Amino acid sequence: MNPLKRILLASSKRGDYLDLHLHTGFSIDVINGNTFIDYMECAQQHGIVPGFLDHFQAEKLEWDGYPFGDESVGLFFEAYDNAKATGLPSFVGLEVDFYDPNQHEDWNVKTMNWLDDHKEDFDYFVGTIHDVDDFTITIPYELEELLKDTPFRTATAGYFTTLLAAITSSMQFSGFAHLDVIYRFCGNGGILPREEAYMRDARTRKAIESCISRDTVVEINLRGFDHPWNTTYPSWELLAEFMQDQPEVDSFFIGSDSHDINTFKRFIPRAKAYSDIIRGKKPFD
Ligand SMILES: [Zn+2]
Ligand SMILES: [Zn+2]
Fold this sequence. Notes:
This protein is α/β, with parallel strands linked by helices. It has helices at 3-14, 36-45, 73-84, 101-118, 140-149, 152-167, 196-199, 202-213, 236-243, 261-278; strands at 18-22, 49-56, 91-97, 124-128, 131-132, 135-136, 175-176, 217-221, 252-255. It has a single domain (17-278), classed as Metal-dependent hydrolases (TIM Barrel, Alpha-Beta Barrel), CATH 3.20.20.140. It contains ten helices and nine strands. A hairpin with a 2-residue loop joins strand 5 (131-132) and strand 6. The radius of gyration is 18 Å and the shape is globular. Residues 95, 128, 130, 177-178 line the site of one zinc ion (ZN).
């Protein structure tokens, strides 16, 4: 069984709240990050169980000091083992980048091998797309650079093609994170206007359906409320269709995508509220 589903079922049974998308200082986009123990102690105080999802990018494995390179990865496991020794509950996964197979199949192969070698060391792996044509679309100036020569329509088409390839690949992904994150900077204060069509994108719907039919869990990523997008990823409007009939408790997981403990703390009430909705304890609205 999908190990992430097993965790979701057991947690639902116990009535434990989860936030399974947390970044520590082991993510390279985090400066002065928080430790596993910081999050675990905070989570314990606020009645939620943390799940770590640091970034994994195969093309950086050979970089000097990259946290998941052969030389450094031992430090990651040591830190997590020490944190677990406190007895506080937590889970550990990775937010794993998948790349356009037409451009970087070699990186995907490298990823597959690494995940295979380390599957016993993690509770689950979550797939994600952060790049279109080698531009990181979750970083505003990189998206702006991409859009200099590429229409947004073309960029989104490339994004969703890669996403679908990731979902249908043989990579060991138990879940997928922020399915429509290409729209992150669409909205007030962003780079592009937020259009109604983006919120109900048929390709996002197809990605959700594809995940569900393959027993892969879809993240309800709450961090979009901090972005111009100003809703969940996938958009709550689109998720509404899947919430009409009560979804299975293991079809979706909640993630705040926090890169520091203050964001984590700020999102705890929301993480609990959305958990209650997907578990049918609170009506959808
Ligand atoms: Zn991400
Ligand atoms: Zn993340």
